[in-house]
Amino acid sequence: MEGRCRTVDLGPPVLHRGSRVTGCALSSCVRLGEQRLDDAEGAEVREIVIVTDDAAALPAEWLEEHREGLAVVGMPVMVDDEALPLGEQKLPSSLLVALAEGRKVTTSRPSPGQFLRVYEQLAAHGYREIVSVHLSAELSGTVSSARIAAQSVDVPVTVIDTRTVAMDQGFGVMAAWEAAGSGADRDEIVAAARGHCGNTVLLYVPSLDQLKRGGRLSPSIARLGTALQIKPLLGLKDGKLAPVEMPRTAAKARSRLVSLAVDALSRNGADPGEENAGSTHVEGAARPEVVIHHLADPDGARELADELVQAYRPDVRITIAEIPAVLAAHVGIGVRAVIVRTAP
């Protein structure tokens, strides 16, 4: 499948109020529908627009279907100090080659000026308020840039530090978009965004080199992991990456990744049971949901998905999505990330 996302058994389609696929990009760093919903006769008016960043790792398919009222700000990625194009759906091959060869790969936050241009363009489109939903301030200066820009815009801008990243952040963005489309006010949208973040995030990286170079992991943990050849499983604590377990081999790490994901699913209100192969989803019950992120390895991600289904239960909803360039630059080749939706 073309693009960055593959979804396994998504279940019945969900119709979103106010959704409409509209034209092309507003600029090189942001994707936004060209036309307001209130331009169409009888369409629902969206007065509040949602802004986020690439780190939310929103699936390409979802983005294609939810362009109206959403802007995604590109986060700069550099290979050997040369900037990669912003806003591309597919990972640049030059980034993958650079990571494989151990070359210099760095990222930077979007500048306040970049955010200011986006906010002003959205105001010019007629949106009356902006809710800007971003990755943890402990991992990036993106929130700071957004807050600086917000002070210079004529419309109210509320900046949310989700204290998380990847599709855990993405779930918050989706909830905010849905709330805005239903006519919710600013406080309700903010509550929706915050309420759908805070899911279980598990990360396996074969090498800590990229995280160490980028300063996204405690130096002491990075040194210990490198020296002992530990393959740590990481999670998020207080908005920062932190070790969950410290397996000594890649095989053990991958096995524990599945086990920890199953534990999180079970804590979310449904037990796998001994006869999981024959279990069925109870009508009306919440369907367990997992997102698996990978880097240029969809086959490996599908194998992990199969393991989760076998270890848990067959009706688990699994979305497979390649991580965006800004996260790939820090985690490197071979990464596996599992987000178990445990927030309501």
From TrEMBL:
Alphabetized UniProt keyword annotations: Lipid-binding
Pfam families, sorted: DegV (PF02645)
Listed InterPro entries: DegV, DegV_C, DegV_domain_contain
Gene3D superfamilies for this protein: 3.30.1180.10, 3.40.50.10170
GO molecular function: lipid binding
Keyword Amino-acid biosynthesis annotated: no
Keyword Nuclease: no
Protein's recorded name: DegV family protein
